[in-house]
Design brief:
The complex is a heterodimer. Chain A is an alpha/beta fold. Chain A folds into two domains: 242 residues, Thiolase/Chalcone synthase (Peroxisomal Thiolase, Chain A, domain 1); 147 residues, Peroxisomal Thiolase, Chain A, domain 1. Chain A is 35% helix and 19% strand. Chain A has 14 helices and 15 strands. Chain A is globular and about 60 Å long. By secondary structure, chain B is mainly α. Helix content of chain B is 59%, strand content 0%. Classes of the chains: A alpha/beta, B mainly alpha. At the A-B interface, helix 3 of A face helix 1 and helix 2 of B.
Chain lengths: 406, 81
């Protein structure tokens, strides 16, 4: 069986636009959540978001940026970082592919076009509207930019999209269909229309009165819902022996991938589906619950979701649930939806080094979420053998990744 | 600035190339401008000059200087010169 190594990583997040900055912010427990601009808040009803101060200039030429959706700009930066970090020789680009994930794709482009057409009755559309807004735009631009001619796929399964992209990329390499894959995801949908749609679901947290940065409180009795964020994360995945032969830095081995569907309800999570996904990932990695030192939970801070996930973890881990540290870093970087699985995998890599990122602002743990929390502050431990990252999506899609120390 | 100068400046920004290095007589594809990029560029040119270039005319534009001629003609027709 061909094993898969992670040899490069790149991040564009509300907590920094490199992997190192992202890890430093997580270690410090710093929040990237803030009040939305007044106009955005007034129109959408949402109060807070994990927004990025994005300047495309260092990453893209001025003319290029104007012709790329914000999500694609994030994707190109994250992928370029990951490829540069990996030092991948790129000798045969037919054997290097792209596996990408995004929930909405070019939401900013689409919404701008609707504002123009329906809002202003101006039907003279930009010619690039289709190729900027389509769901595969960000992943395809990564392939085009780097000339990656191997297998290409774009997953759009809401909050599990980019975790699925990583898992499927692992399978693609393991099956011998590629030697390396650029895998990740991007999301940029903090637009008035999308925020209003989420607000209508009544799942968004209002601003914390004392500290807007503390508005998302997973597993806390006071939790009031999720906070949307934006960004991207990308990884270079590579067949292990080739990576070792060229002396590449191995961040981790991606050893387990679980993928199940609840097939019960479009939005209400189901314990059984989550349990099966975690069990699949453990089995594929050849690990037992005791081998897992940290779980990056899906933990969106909704009333129902956090309880169901805690029950699922307890069902899978049994006695080991008393030991395994759990946190939801969404408390700090917000919920990147289609980009969240990839970004949280980047957080899990930090845990693999022995720095467990915290659930920010967790002061009053909900007894219904009986887990061994990493609360408020990062914990330093001896590097665990393996870590797990959960991504559970609307539509009932459950994806679980397991990474093992390389 | 004259029409060609404005077109060159727009093209330089759109395609991230030095305006000085743009040969107005060079076929667009030799400047690395493909058909999709050109259609998006035309959209911005139409905005800049407030003119409209038909699909038929578009097919005859092979160089920046062809483009200048069409824009100048459209401006003249609209009484904007």
């Amino acid at each position: 069986m061909r094993r898969v190594a992670v040899t490069g990583a790149g991040v564009v997040s509300p907590l920094g636009i490199t992997l190192e900055e992202f890890h430093r912010s997580l270690t410090a427990g710093r929040s990237g959540i803030r009040r939305l601009a007044p106009e955005l808040a007034a129109r959408s009803g949402a109060q807070v978001g994990a927004t990025l101060d994005w300047n495309p200039a260092p990453h893209l030429k001025e003319g290029e940026a104007a012709n790329l959706d914000r999500a694609t700009q994030f994707a190109l930066s994250a992928a370029a970082q990951a490829i540069a970090a990996s030092g991948l020789p790129m000798k045969d680009r037919d054997r290097v592919g792209v596996s990408w994930g995004t929930g909405m794709g070019g939401a900013n482009t689409l919404e701008a076009s609707y504002q123009q057409t329906y809002g202003k009755d101006d039907w003279r559309m930009r010619p690039l509207t289709v190729v900027m807004s389509m769901s595969n735009a960000s992943g395809s631009n990564v392939a085009v930019r780097h000339g990656l001619r191997g297998p290409f796929a774009n997953y759009s399964t809401a909050c599990s999209s980019s975790a699925m992209a990583l898992g499927e990329a692992m399978r693609t390499i393991a099956a011998g269909r590629a030697d390396a894959m650029v895998a990740g995801g991007a999301e940029a949908l903090l637009t008035p229309g999308v925020l209003a749609a989420w607000q209508a679901l009544r799942t968004l947290a209002p601003a914390d009165a004392a500290d807007a940065g503390a508005s998302c409180k997973p597993f806390d009795k006071r939790r009031a819902g999720l906070v949307l964020g934006e960004g991207a994360a990308a990884f270079v995945l590579e067949e292990e022996s080739a990576a070792r032969a060229r002396g590449a830095r191995i961040y981790a081995l991606l050893t387990g991938y679980g993928n199940t569907c609840d097939a019960v309800h479009m939005s209400r999570p189901d314990r059984d589906g989550q349990v099966r996904a975690m069990q699949q990932a453990l089995a594929e990695a050849g690990l037992t619950p005791r081998d897992i030192g940290y779980i990056n939970a899906h933990g969106t801070a909704t009333a129902v979701g956090d309880v169901v996930e805690a029950e699922a973890i307890n069902a899978v881990f049994g006695q080991a649930a008393r030991e395994v540290r759990v946190s939801s870093t969404k408390s700090l970087h917000g919920h990147l939806l289609g980009g969240s699985g990839a970004l949280e995998f980047a957080a899990a890599l930090l845990a693999l080094e022995g720095v467990l990122p915290p659930t920010g602002f967790l002061e009053q743990p909900d007894p219904a979420c009986a887990l061994r929390h990493v609360a408020r502050q990062a914990e330093r431990v001896s590097p665990p053998r393996a870590v797990m990252s959960n991504s559970f999506a609307f539509g009932g899609s459950n994806v679980v990744l397991v990474a093992t120390r390389g | 600035m004259d029409t060609l100068g404005r077109i060159r400046q727009l093209a330089a920004k759109e395609f991230s190339i030095n305006p000085e290095g743009l040969d107005p007589k060079a076929p667009l594809d030799t400047l690395g401008i493909d058909s999709l990029s050109f259609i998006e560029f035309m959209f911005k040119v139409e905005d800049e000059f407030g003119v409209s270039v038909s699909d038929e005319e578009l097919k005859t534009i092979k160089t920046l200087s062809d483009l200048e001629r069409h824009v100048a003609a459209a401006l003249a027709a609209a009484g904007k010169t």
